């Protein structure tokens, strides 16, 4: 097989993951899309024909093609090893909303003067978002990662200057934190938190991260692990702890617990009993 592609939909986004086998250089004909095309080149360079010129696409770069704009793509050389990239197609309204929320005023969909973006932290966050949208990550994590990536994209590379937040955010963030702590066993969405806080999802995600130092999904995971520690010390079995604290299963709890605490739930409970 010369190449493989996996495609899926998440919340109005079309996502694709491509993997090309080694082989001769290929070229895609001119075409366009009705959405913004955002692509991460993982391990092989490319070349876009776009806006009347040729644009090199280095490994590790993000590229953005505007809705309706004709472009072509080709390999600059023979593929000597497997190559892969990840693609996202986002409706113009979604990017326009990200720009509006950032600037604090309504405006047109954002314009990216340079289609090739060399921004290693943003590329890393885009990959984490793409993986979260591909797998079974909680809805809150998927939503928060998406809004964070889009906000950073338009602020850093489309000239959208973030406006200072109004003064009611601290109370909104406190309400959101309390709600997450009171509902650790549930899959809370960012929309749900935003309605509670009376802010838009974009704005809540931004101010929550600024105020707390963590995005909502990371704060939720930390709170779940804190609750799990307490339950383990009371003698609860790990499988029951996982259900009570909202993890998908015991292995999910173990991975997250070890990442934050440094040991598995079983080791934590056993060592604590020995100390007692």
Strand order of the largest sheet: 1-2-9-4-7-10
Q: Taking all residues together, what is the mean pLDDT? A: 90
CATH homologous superfamily of the largest domain? Jelly Rolls
Q: What is the helical fraction, as a range of percent?
A: 40-55%
**If classified by CATH, what would the architecture of the largest domain be?**
Sandwich
Total separate domains? 3
CATH fold title of the largest domain: Jelly Rolls
β-strand amount:
15-25%
- Main structural class: alpha+beta
CATH class of the largest domain: Mainly Beta
Q: Please report the number of helical segments.
A: 10
Ends apart, CA distance between termini:
59 Å
Which blocks of ≥5 consecutive residues have pLDDT under 50?
none
**CA-based gyration radius:** 22 Å
Strand and helix order: EEEEEEEEEHEHHHHHHHHH
- What is the number of beta strands? 10
Largest sheet: 6 strands, antiparallel
Question: Which overall shape is indicated by the principal axes computed on the Cα atoms?
Answer: globular
Describe this protein's structure.
The chain is 46% helix and 20% strand. With 276 residues, it is α+β, with helices and mostly antiparallel strands. It folds into three domains: 155 residues, Jelly Rolls; 45 residues; 57 residues, Orthogonal Bundle (Arc Repressor Mutant, subunit A). The protein has a six-stranded antiparallel sheet with strand order 1-2-9-4-7-10. The longest helix has 19 residues. The protein starts with a strand and ends with a helix.
Q: What's the quick description here?
A:
The chain is α+β, with helices and mostly antiparallel strands.
């Amino acid at each position: 097989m010369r190449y493989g592609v996996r495609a899926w939909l998440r919340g109005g986004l079309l996502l694709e993951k491509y993997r090309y086998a080694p082989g001769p250089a290929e070229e895609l004909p001119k075409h366009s899309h009705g959405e913004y095309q955002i692509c991460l080149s993982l391990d092989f360079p490319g070349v876009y024909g776009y806006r009347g010129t040729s644009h090199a696409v280095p490994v590790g770069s993000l590229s953005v093609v505007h809705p309706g704009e004709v472009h072509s793509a080709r390999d600059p050389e023979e593929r000597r090893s497997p190559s892969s990239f990840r693609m996202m197609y986002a409706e113009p309204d979604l990017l326009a909303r990200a720009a509006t929320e950032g600037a604090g005023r309504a405006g047109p969909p954002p314009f990216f003067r340079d289609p090739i973006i060399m921004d290693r932290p943003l590329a890393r966050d885009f990959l984490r978002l793409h993986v979260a949208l591909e797998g079974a990550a909680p809805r809150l994590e998927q939503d928060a990662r998406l809004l964070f990536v889009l906000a950073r994209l338009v602020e850093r590379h489309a000239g959208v200057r973030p406006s200072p937040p109004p003064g009611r955010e601290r109370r909104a963030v406190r309400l959101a934190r309390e709600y997450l702590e009171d509902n650790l066993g549930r899959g809370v969405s960012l929309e749900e938190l935003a309605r509670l806080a009376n802010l838009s999802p974009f704005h809540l995600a931004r101010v929550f991260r600024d105020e707390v130092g963590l995005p909502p999904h990371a704060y939720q995971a930390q709170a779940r692990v804190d609750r799990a520690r307490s339950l383990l010390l009371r003698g609860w079995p790990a499988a029951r702890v996982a259900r009570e604290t909202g993890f998908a299963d015991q292995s999910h709890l173990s991975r997250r617990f070890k990442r934050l605490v440094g040991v598995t739930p079983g080791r934590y409970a056993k060592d604590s009993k020995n100390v007692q």
